[in-house]
Amino acid sequence: MENAIELRELTKTYGSRRGLAGLTLDVRVGEVFGYLGPNGAGKSTTIRLLLDLIRPTVGRATVLGLDPRADGVELRCRLGYLAGDFVVDGRQRVRDCLRFLADLRGGVPQQRIDDLTDRLGLDQNAHIKKLSKGNRQKIGLVQAFMHTPELLILDEPTSGLDPLVQQTFLDLVTEAAANGQTVFMSSHIMDEVEAVADRVGILRDGRLVALDSVAQLRAGAVREIEITFAEPVRAEEFARLPGVRTLVLDPAGTTLRGQLTGEPDALVKAAARHHVTALRASEPTLDGLFHAYYADAEAAPRSTAAV
Ligand SMILES: Nc1ncnc2c1ncn2[C@@H]1O[C@H](COP(=O)(O)OP(=O)(O)OP(=O)(O)O)[C@@H](O)[C@H]1O
Questions:
Q1: At what angle do helices 94-104 and 133-145 cross, to 10 degrees?
Q2: Is 40 in the pocket of ligand 1 (CB under 6 A)?
Q3: 17 CA from centroid of ligand 1 (Å)
Q4: Are residue 118 and residue 248 in the same domain, yes or no?
């Protein structure tokens, strides 16, 4: 089995409302796949279709080589799922709830549960009804990870978590990937996805508008650049260099400011023909790219052949 998830022309309409429109996507075994998109893009719809919690209007989903509709029981044994709207029986203590869920999965060593709750800072003696939203979300994370499933499907897993716990979550994802597990996680937050994902898909209005490896996306991301020279330079020398998006020379002709994508090699070599007194370049972040997709309603699907 090469792909943990295969989606073919997956479409879901809610009456006249579009949830998902003809989504074709493969998630490879062992990869961390970040599934991004604004509110209402169709992320939860996709995830619910994977679990057979809802059924497609058109198209097909295969998960771990299984049909979610026909093989629901086997599938649930082999995956860990965190719902976007995770709810849990408030009458129990955390310990009893997790024990119950562990037994449902055929048994999980208590040591494993203790380790996860310790790392996430979750008190097993607490009554669930008294827990904050973030602490309830931690129960959701523990129950998804505890049986070391082949595939983790996580819908907005960091929702409600403070930054320290978010980092612990990212560590758990990294460890799962090192262990050969596949992770499919949805998020609004490019930064957290960028930190752990191998590939990213960006969904908008039920359609995939970008699909690429994080490395490729980063190569296309924008870097802010500022170069100061000892003597005035001519703007034309720099305007047509590879990767240059915009470059503006200040009135004195000594400071060049602008935006660059990809490698800065050509610009650095051109600048080195002069006496450079200062050079400032920001790290390229995917956040800007992500916002561009959000802003551009008619963005065409993009992918890189090498992905
Ligand atoms: N049960 C439903 N009935 C009608 N419309 C629905 C239903 N569930 C989802 N939708 C619609 O389908 C579209 C996709 O919603 P979905 O919840 O999948 O988005 P999402 O990307 O998960 O958003 P969010 O980040 O806000 O959770 C939205 O327009 C939403 O209003």
A1: 30
A2: yes
A3: 9
A4: no
Look up the domain containing 226 and give its range. Answer: 222-284
At residue 197, the 3 state secondary structure works out as: coil
Rounded to two decimals, the ipTM of the complex is 0.96
Specify the DSSP element, H or E, that contains 151: strand 151-155
User: Can you tell me the distance from the alpha carbon of 204 to that of 101, in angstroms, rounded to the nearest whole number?
Assistant: 34
Among left, alpha and beta (phi > 0; psi -120 to 50; other), residue 41 is alpha
Same domain, 234 and 204: no
Among the three residues 218, 247, 264, which one is the final residue of a domain in this structure? Answer: 218
Residue 21 CA to ligand 1 center (angstroms) comes to 12
* pLDDT tens string 84-134: 989 888 899 999 999 999 998 888 999 999 999 999 999 999 999 999 999
**CB of 42 closer than 6 A to ligand 1?**
yes
Q: Whose CA is nearest to atom 7 of ligand 1?
A: 14
Higher-confidence position of 190 and 41: 41
CA distances from 263 to 160, 223, 282 (A): 37, 10, 13
Largest CA distance in the chain: 74
Structure token digits, residue 51: 């679990």
